């Protein structure tokens, strides 16, 4: 009878955003994610800290409409027409104004080095067409009325103020000359006409009608000339000084602290985005649903055991936090194995997924079910089973076929089977440790007596659990599994990628290795659903 799974819905899509998984990814990458912003921020601070300071001075120019209907008799004046949008920005960088600014800077009271630097910038502007460090910000209405802000930068507060003052003076002078230009041309024309009439009067006799007519015309021209002179002298531009250039108190650049903070934040955000992107591209196995979607039977789920608590794993599997999880794995595994002499290899796709912990846990669970259990540590590259069991004061037990039993390791037991013995680590579990491997691992696994010895040793036990190396690192697990009743694959939840599991399945198929099922390891206790009863039957 199939038991209905409880807990989270296994049909839920694994592609949905899992905030807990996001935090898991960020926690796993916490060190580089925090170190990179600190390094980038520190370097940014040092780089900007060494740069020379830059100060900014601001002066404001008011733009108004010209007054209409004015005459010299009423005391009014001539005004220049308003400038179109963007005209001030173009004019301020023109050759005429740059030359005028150079004259003002030349007369300014500045240190020689700063004056030379400003003059060099202005000279460069004559060649390039733009003054660096000088900009215009317009705040105008639809009728071009408003305020122009002239912003000038320099290596010192006074240099910035002088450049802003020079720019405003040059701009106001240009605007005033623009207002006077038309009246000036009219005055010059009237002067030429008066000179011409004066020459004509010299050749005419006194009292002649023509002379009288020219004298009358000359008088009107003199009146017009006086009016033009008044208009020229009273002409005003459409621009006027609103606020004089200020002397800045603090530099606007560099700002090492601000720039360092921005660089650190950008690096942090970029690092978080990259970490999440890489995690998404890896398509990690996040839960039982991902295993089912791969068509693999799930034997159970195991919570994470901290590395520092390895010596407590057996105790936890006996009556602690691992007891129930190990029981589910055992219950699902038993129908797939012979009643006695069963050989089970345990492996993982890559190192660090906890397959050795699962090996010790499964062995303990079988022993609690009154099964005779032998654990063989055949991860000869990185053996760790000795960290789970207590060796102190424990007896050694002869393995089947041993006529002169002695304390042995795997290598010694394979090469001298007549001396092979295992350590009784208690609770009905015997352990054949890896020990110090002083020869090539391949030669041990290819020993001609290896398959027969495994079966001979299994005769004295109900279950033999073999700890093997990760299959994507070395091929030892498949070499060993060919001589067993099947292979158990340990997958770390949220860490192992789907392509890695698929590669293991493909390699198992190509080597004709029976894959008994998957144990999802290092699962958060709040996420454990124990769907195990029904899933094992699918394999």
Automatic annotation (TrEMBL):
<keyword id="KW-1003">Cell membrane</keyword>
<keyword id="KW-1133">Transmembrane helix</keyword>
<dbReference type="InterPro" id="IPR027417">
    <property type="entry name" value="P-loop_NTPase"/>
</dbReference>
<feature type="domain" description="Polysaccharide chain length determinant N-terminal">
    <location>
        <begin position="15"/>
        <end position="102"/>
    </location>
</feature>
<keyword id="KW-0812">Transmembrane</keyword>
<protein>
    <submittedName>
        <fullName>Polysaccharide biosynthesis tyrosine autokinase</fullName>
        <ecNumber>2.7.10.2</ecNumber>
    </submittedName>
</protein>
<dbReference type="InterPro" id="IPR003856">
    <property type="entry name" value="LPS_length_determ_N"/>
</dbReference>
<keyword id="KW-0547">Nucleotide-binding</keyword>
<dbReference type="Pfam" id="PF02706">
    <property type="entry name" value="Wzz"/>
</dbReference>
<dbReference type="InterPro" id="IPR033756">
    <property type="entry name" value="YlxH/NBP35"/>
</dbReference>
<keyword id="KW-0067">ATP-binding</keyword>
<dbReference type="InterPro" id="IPR005702">
    <property type="entry name" value="Wzc-like_C"/>
</dbReference>
<dbReference type="Pfam" id="PF10609">
    <property type="entry name" value="ParA"/>
</dbReference>
<keyword id="KW-0808">Transferase</keyword>
<dbReference type="GO" id="GO:0004715">
    <property type="term" value="F:non-membrane spanning protein tyrosine kinase activity"/>
</dbReference>
<dbReference type="InterPro" id="IPR050445">
    <property type="entry name" value="Bact_polysacc_biosynth/exp"/>
</dbReference>
<keyword id="KW-0472">Membrane</keyword>
